[in-house]
Amino acid sequence: MKEKICIVGAGPAGIIAAGIAGSRGKDVTLIEKNERIGKKLFITGKGRCNITNNAPIEDFFDNVMKNKNFLYSSFYSFTNRDIVNLLESYGLETKVERGNRIFPLSDKSSDVIKAFQKFLVANNVKLLLDTKVNSIDIKNEKFILRTNRDETIFDKLVIATGGKSYPATGSTGDGYIFAEGLGHSITKIRPSLVPVEVKETWIKDLQGLSLKNVTLSAYAKKKIIYEEFGEMIFTHYGISGPIVLSMSNYLYRYINDGIRLSIDLKPALDDKKLDDRILRDFELNNNKKMKNALDDLLPQKLISIILFLSDLDPEKIINQITKEERLKLLNSIKEFPLTFKFFRPIEEAIVTSGGVSTKEINPSTMESKKVPGLYFAGEIIDVDALTGGYNLQIAYSTGYLAGSNV
C-alpha cells in the first residue's frame, strides 16, 4: 500500500514538493486554502513573476540574508536551471532581463501557474482547493489533519504554508502555529524586503514619482551601511521599489542608530560635470524664474522640493543666482536627504524573515529533527534573501528536497 503524503500550501514550495513526491509514485494530496494554486506567485514581479535568477548558483548564497549555509544542499540539488527546464518542459518560454532576472516570455505570471498545474496533473497529485487546515495532530506516528471539509490521516507531512507577508494571498502564519504545536521553535518574525517610512512631511507631495538610475545610500552614525544603484518610487509615507526593498534588510541592526538616507539623483555625473550641466541649463533659461528653469534636469514633482531643500527662492530669476546658491542646488541633487522613520507593516513585505528554526531541520532532506515524517519547505523556514528571484528559488529548492525525501 502506498504511503499517503500530504503537502499543506500550494505556493511554489508546496507545488514542487507535491510534484516531485508524485513523480516518485507516492500517493500525494496537496491542500490549499485559496481557490487556486500559486496565489502569491501570481502577484510577484508586478504580476509578471520573477521566476528565478540566471546568475551562477554559487552567487545565490551572496544574496541570502539569513542562514545561507542551510541552503547548500537545496540550491545544488535543484538549481535555477532545473526550475527553468522544468517549466519549459510544460510549455513555458522564458527570458532574461536586467539583473539576470528570469521572467516568462509572455510577461504573465498566469502562464507560470499554468505550467505548474500541468506539472501537478502529470504527477498524479490530488489537489484540494478551498480547503483550510484547522489543526494537525500526531497519533501512532500518523498525522491527523482536520480541515473545513473532513478529517484525514496521512503517513508523512510537508508544511509549506509560507510566512505572514501578503496575508490576502493566504500567508497568514498558520504554518507557525502548526509547527509550534508539533514541538518546533519559531524565530522572531519580522518583515523582509519591505517599504520604508520617512519623517519628512513633504514626502506625500512626491507620491507616485518613480526614479530610475539613481543611487540610494543609508548611513548610521556617519558610517555608510548600504548603497545601491537602480529604481525606486516615492509613496505617501516614504519610499519603495527594488533598491529600497533590498536596503530594508540591512537596516534592522541599526534601527536605534539614527539612520539617515540619501539619494544621488544624478550618479552618472560627478560634481564638476553636474555643475557644468547646471550652468548650461542656466544659460538657456537665463531670464526664467528658478521654478521654471529645471525641467530638463529634474522631474517636475521634484523641483519645488529640491529648491526648498536648497533654501532657494523659486521666484528668483536665473541670472541673479550666485555661485553659492548654485552649489546648494547641486548638493541637494547629489545628496537628496531623507530621514528613516520605520518599516511598513509585515503585511506589506514581500517575504517574511524568521520562521521554523533551521537548527531543527535536516538541511539535506528538509525533515524535522524532532518529528519523524514531518518536513518543511519554503518561506516558513527561517531563511530569506534579496530581491531578484532568489526567494522563489529558495522555495523551489527546499520544496524539491522535501518532495524527494518525504
Automatic annotation (TrEMBL):
InterPro entries, per database record: BaiN-like, BaiN-like_dom_sf, FAD/NAD-bd_sf, RsdA/BaiN/AoA(So)-like_dom, RsdA/BaiN/AoA(So)_Rossmann
Domain of life: Bacteria
Protein name: NAD(P)/FAD-dependent oxidoreductase
PANTHER family given in the database record: OS12G0638800 PROTEIN
UniProt keyword annotation of Flavoprotein present: yes
Cofactors (names): FAD
Domain RsdA/BaiN/AoA(So)-like insert: from-to ranges: 190-351
Keywords: FAD, Flavoprotein
Lineage: Bacteria, Bacillati, Bacillota, Tissierellia, Tissierellales
Claim: Flavoprotein is one of the keywords in the record: yes
Domain RsdA/BaiN/AoA(So)-like Rossmann fold-like per the UniProt entry, residue ranges: 4-404
